[in-house]
Amino acid sequence: MMVGGTGLALTNFPDLVTADANERGDEIMATEGQTSGAATSVRAFGGQHQPKPLPFNPAKLNGFSEKLIRSHWENNYGGAVKALNAVEQRLQELLRDKELPPYVYGNLKREELVRTGSVVLHEHYFANLGGDGKAGGKALGLVKQWFGSYEQWEAEFKKTANALAGGSGWVILAHNMHTGEVHNYWAWDHMHNAPMSRPLLVLDMYEHAYHMDYGAAAAKYVDAFAQNVNWEEVNRRAEASLKGVHPQSGTNNIAILQMEKVGS
Ligand SMILES: [Fe+2]
How far is the CA of 12 from the centre of ligand 1 (A)? Predict the structure, then answer.
């Protein structure tokens, strides 16, 4: 099984990125390191993120229609990637405008945070689907350690999810690298994250994730999600987080890894 990883945008899917965006992106990369008089182009605003492909066959999930999964991936996740690219490219342009009021710039900085959160969390969500829902390994050990039993952890995870029913948000089983604890964190939107927490298992509770198949019956969607969790991926994240490394590469310097890939 091909497993999608964490981190931003390292695979090819050019039809979700406009030609205009590509052209502007090329200009940005071409001017990298050069001075333009008013400001130097910055690598952080490259605007070249690419959607990761689904790491499973969307027709094979248990309790989810292929139409729902494809729509979610293409419209919501794909849309977030496109928006993030557009926001970064706009930030790049606005850096040169010394007359721009900070509060106007701040609106776009908020969008940068919203879209980044959406991209990262959606990539985790899709990558932790496509399994048989049977927990095991390091992740099972962690939930037993911090919740007493798998059943008690699952009950708390589902209760947290159902608290978000009918609205929006995420449930994130996370290893908090500051406290060393494992929690099911509640997140009302893409910007809610416990500081220093690394996602192990991510559940999308926005209505777009289930309404097509389940209507307002969010609890049934949460049950279906549990039956499709790819615990192999959750285990990779858990082992990597405990070691302080990136789950796919094994490197212990995530920042350098991502900079190298974006710039490659
Ligand atoms: Fe979503």
Answer: 20
204 CA distance to ligand 1 centroid (A)? 6
Structure tokens at 256: 């350098």
Instruction: Kindly state whether residue 111 falls inside one of the protein's structural domains.
Output: no
Which parts of the chain sit beneath pLDDT 50? 1-37, 253-264
Residue 69 lies in a domain: no
Task: Give 45-79 pLDDT, tens digit per residue.
Answer: 999 999 999 999 999 999 999 999 999 999 999 99
Expressed in angstroms and rounded, the spacing between residue 110 Cα and the centre of ligand 1 is 19
CATH assignment of the domain containing 244: 3.55.40.20
- Ligand 1 centroid to Cα of residue 76, in Å, is 6
What pLDDT does residue 31 have?
41
pTM of the full structure: 0.81
Q: How far is the CA of 169 from the centre of ligand 1 (A)?
A: 9
In a domain, 115, yes or no: no
Cα 69 to averaged position of ligand 1 atoms, centre (Å): 10
Give the distance (Å) from ligand 1 centre to CA of residue 71: 10
Residue 44: other Cβ atoms inside 10 A: 12
Per DSSP, the three-state class of 250 is coil
**What domain range is 221 assigned to?**
137-251
Q: Give the Å distances, CA to CA, from 118 to 33, 42, 76, 122, 129.
A: 29, 22, 9, 6, 17
239 Cα: distance to centroid of ligand 1 (angstroms) = 26
203 lies in some domain: yes
Domain count along the chain: 1
Residue 85 contacts residue 247 (beta carbons within 8 Å)? no
